[in-house]
Amino acid sequence: MKIADELKVFANGSSFTAFAAGEYAVEAGGEKENFFRLGRISAAGFSGALALPEKLRCHRTNDNLCAEFDSVNVIPFGCEYRVKRHWTVFSNIALLNCDIAADNGGVVRDLELEPVEFLLKAEKVEFRIYGENAVRTVNAPEGELYSGSAAVLMVRVTAADGAQAEYICGDDIWRHRGAEKIAGASAEYRIAVEDGKVVLTRKVLITPDEVTVEKRPWKFKSIFSWRTPGSVTVPESAGEEFALEGCFAFAFARREVRKVVRRTGKDAVLLLKGEFPRLCDDPAHLERPAKHPVEHCDLGAAAADYLWANRELAKRGSVMVMKGSSMLYGEAVTLANLNSVPVLFEE
């Protein structure tokens, strides 16, 4: 079966495009300017830009609230590396689940995740580094903004007209810091302005030949968001408000959200408040039996709750918006989108 070169969806003046092969994996675009694009994963020094496409599909829900993209690419060098991506795209938010495996009995020894190129003309760049207590802000950015082994948790680029694009490390922070648990391994992160673009590179695993690496696939999550100037935000009035305490990744939180949504009637505006996003290390929230801490965030879980709730509420002409009070990532684009009415994809 022939694989399409690219698949695209449109919503409220912006687009999201996935490419089957080539230098870039996806791009989020706008009417006046593009927001960001992702390059390809590199493994063992072999570029994913040379990978062969095996799959590219898009499924849109009947309610036009969500589009899901699935792709598979194989880097045909070394032991061969298979890269699977699953995107969940809604309301100018894109959740990425990515799996990387070495075929033919090989191991993933050196791994660089997709370079993120922010295409807005940056008036301001904000970012947060793991282990630091605050978001850094650089106005009129030039040159190298950060280089180090500590993981980049967030990068947000703002243009002069107010357009914004944002990357946030997925809820699986312990995976993005996985190199720290392998003796002899290291990681390199970098944020720099190159050719007018803000570029984030993420070398999450660097291992010398003498270092033993476990034979297993690697999985990573990421969150991307974008926002045009004057985007619709929270409705003028909310009919019902409820607060949720604790980490949204905990199954109890999911049950509480579902309980409230299911009892909400027609033509209602539901406002969920909580102190999120937050960092947490309770392994029980991830249904892991391990007693040692497993560090995670709950923003992806909150976004998934937003999508589920609005798909349910749309059947009754109602909506839910979410207001997170945490300043973990500052004035996050993702939070602004969650605090807005859902955006529908065009037919």
Rough shape?
Answer: globular
Q: Tell me about the biggest sheet?
A: 10 strands, antiparallel
Q: Percent of residues in helical segments? A: 10-25%
The whole-angstrom Rg is 20 Å
Question: How does the helix and strand content classify structurally?
Answer: mainly beta
Tally of DSSP β-strands: 24
Mean pLDDT: 93
Distance between the termini: 25 Å
What percentage of amino acids are in beta strands? 35-45%
Can you offer a commentary on this structure?
This protein is mainly β and 347 residues long. Helix 2 runs parallel beside helix 3.
Features:
single chain, 347 residues, ten-stranded antiparallel beta sheet, nine-stranded antiparallel beta sheet, 4 helices, globular
Task: Give the SSE layout.
Blueprint: E1 6-11, E2 14-19, E3 26-30, E4 36-38, E5 42-43, E6 46-47, E7 52-60, E8 67-75, E9 81-90, E10 93-102, E11 111-118, E12 122-129, E13 136-139, E14 144-148, E15 152-159, E16 164-169, H1 173-176, E17 186-194, E18 197-206, E19 218-227, E20 240-244, H2 251-263, E21 269-274, E22 279-280, E23 296-297, H3 299-314, E24 319-324, H4 333-338
Parallel strand pairs: 20-21, 21-24
Antiparallel strand pairs: 1-2, 2-3, 3-4, 4-11, 5-6, 5-11, 7-8, 8-9, 9-10, 10-19, 11-18, 12-13, 12-15, 14-17, 15-16, 16-19, 17-18, 22-23
Helix pairs in contact: 2-3
